Each structure stands twice: as structure tokens, then as C-alpha cells.
């Protein structure tokens, strides 16, 4: 949507990536030159929070809030392997005496500093993903109990058929969303963990063709990272 049309989303509901309504657009914060910077969201409990406009996707009347954890994970899965390859390329150029030693030291220190910070950020994402996985587990457990009690009350005739079907459908949809969300966080956690081990194949999948060609071209020009054992973390099975 163009900047002028963003004002049309005021008061409109915001859904997360799994179709659940989490709040609505209350207002926007703009920079002095008129660029949309942040969005104020009123959540379902009445609380307000300011979020970066980058975390919202606008598609016509549909507004989707993209998880901060997943957004940052995508960036880290792009940047860590790329910076590592560039650092390796600088080392190779130095070995081949194609750059001055002092320039090598400067570039190497720069890349090493960036990698150190990116790895710290990646560890934070892993910890936050683990928290979200635990939250999803609790939600799945609660929903499973709710379904079991609904089945029980329906079985003994306390809940009529029409009410039972409506409630069962609602609970099943919520359970499906919770399981999908948990799987996404498990995948994110696994990918980031693998990135920290130096496995370039563990980058989060992209569908953009131009992006894929860009990464392929870069990979062909820069040295290969070391071979490591791929570790995949398996989350607890959903209830």
C-alpha cells in the first residue's frame, strides 16, 4: 500500500501469521519528512504498544503482523554465512598476497567484530524461540484439555449437537494454529543453531528467484565454509 493509503488501515484488525486477530491499528508515527516509521497497536487486552512498521504486511484490507523473532532470524540466516565467506575471502587474498597486510588486518577485524555481534544476536533468538515453543506447548495442552471436556459433556448430553459442533470447530482451528506456530519456532531455532555451527545449507528457505540467484552467485565467488555436522533439534511432540 502507498503511504497515503496506510491511513485507511486505522481501526482495522491485525492478524498474526496464523490468522489469529491480535489487535487493531490505533495510530501511526511518522518521521519529519512524512515517512511511516512506527505503528501503534491496541491489543485484545486493551494494552497499547508501538511496533516498527517493518513488522506489518499490508495486502489490501488484510494486515498481518510478522513475528519479530522470525524476521530477525531471516536476517541472521542471510548475514552470518555471507560475512563468514567474506572473511574467508579476505584471508585467501592475504595468503595469495593480493592485498596489503595492514588492509587484511583491518578488514579481518571488521568482519570478525560483525560476526561476534551477529552470533550474540543469534543466541538471543534461540532463547526467545525456546520461550515461544514452551508457550505453544502450554497452549496446545490447554486446548487439548478443553476438547476432552467438551467431548465429555457432549457425550453425557450436557451440550447439544449444534453447540458441540461450533465449539469443536473453534477449538480445532485454535489447536491447528498453535501446532503450526510451534513448528515454525522449532524450525527457526534449529536453523539458527545450525548457522552458528557454520552450516550454510541451514539458511531459512526463500522463494524469491532474484534472491536465490544472488546467493548462488555470491557462493560461487567466495570460499566454501568448513564442513560441520548438521544438528537438528527435535521439539516435544504436540499433544
Would you mind describing this structure in some detail?
The chain is of the alpha+beta class and 239 residues long. The protein contains five helices and six strands, in the order αββββββαααα. The chain has helices spanning 3-6, 68-95, 101-155, 161-196, 209-221, and strands at 13-16, 21-30, 36-43, 48-52, 56-59, 62-65. The chain has a six-stranded mixed sheet, with no helix packed on it. β5 (56-59) and β6 (62-65) form a beta hairpin. α2 runs parallel beside α4 (161-196). It is elongated, with a radius of gyration of 23 Å.
Q: Could you provide a short overview of the structure?
A:
The chain has five helices and six strands. It has 239 residues and is of the alpha+beta class. It has two domains: 64 residues, Photosynthetic Reaction Center, Chain H, domain 2; 153 residues.
Cα Rg: 23 Å
* Spatial separation of the terminal alpha carbons: 40 Å
Q: Shape from CA axes?
A: elongated
Q: What is the count of β-strands?
A: 6
Query: Which strand order spans the largest sheet, edge to edge or round the barrel?
Result: 4-3-2-1-6-5
Count of helical segments? 5
Percent of sequence in beta strands: 5-15%
Classification by helices and strands: alpha+beta
Share in helix: 55-70%
Question: Number of folding domains?
Answer: 2
User: Mean pLDDT, rounded to whole units?
Assistant: 82
Order of helices and strands: HEEEEEEHHHH
Low-pLDDT runs = 199-239
Main beta-sheet strand count, sense and barrel state: 6 strands, mixed
Amino acid at each position: 500500500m502507498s503511504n497515503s493509503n496506510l491511513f485507511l488501515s486505522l481501526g482495522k484488525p491485525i492478524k498474526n501469521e496464523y490468522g489469529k486477530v491480535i489487535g487493531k491499528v490505533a495510530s501511526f508515527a511518522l518521521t519529519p519528512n512524512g515517512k511511516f516509521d512506527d505503528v501503534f497497536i491496541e491489543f485484545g487486552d486493551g494494552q497499547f504498544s508501538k511496533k516498527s512498521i517493518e513488522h506489518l504486511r499490508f495486502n489490501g484490507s488484510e494486515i498481518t503482523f510478522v513475528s519479530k523473532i522470525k524476521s530477525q532470524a531471516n536476517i541472521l540466516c542471510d548475514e552470518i554465512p555471507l560475512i563468514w565467506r567474506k572473511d574467508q575471502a579476505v584471508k585467501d587474498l592475504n595468503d595469495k598476497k593480493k592485498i596489503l597486510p595492514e588492509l587484511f588486518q583491518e578488514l579481518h577485524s571488521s568482519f570478525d567484530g560483525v560476526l561476534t555481534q551477529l552470533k550474540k544476536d543469534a543466541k538471543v533468538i534461540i532463547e526467545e524461540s525456546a520461550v515461544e515453543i514452551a508457550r505453544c506447548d502450554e497452549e496446545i495442552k490447554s486446548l487439548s484439555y478443553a476438547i476432552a471436556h467438551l467431548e465429555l459433556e457432549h457425550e453425557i448430553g450436557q451440550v447439544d449437537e449444534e453447540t458441540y459442533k461450533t465449539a469443536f470447530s473453534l477449538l480445532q482451528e485454535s489447536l491447528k494454529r498453535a501446532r503450526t506456530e510451534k513448528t515454525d519456532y522449532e524450525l527457526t531455532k534449529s536453523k539458527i543453531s545450525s548457522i552458528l555451527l557454520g552450516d550454510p545449507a541451514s539458511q531459512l528457505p526463500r522463494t524469491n528467484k532474484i534472491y536465490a540467484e544472488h546467493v548462488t552467485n555470491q557462493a560461487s565467488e567466495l570460499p566454501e565454509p568448513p564442513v560441520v555436522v548438521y544438528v537438528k533439534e527435535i521439539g516435544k511432540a504436540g499433544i
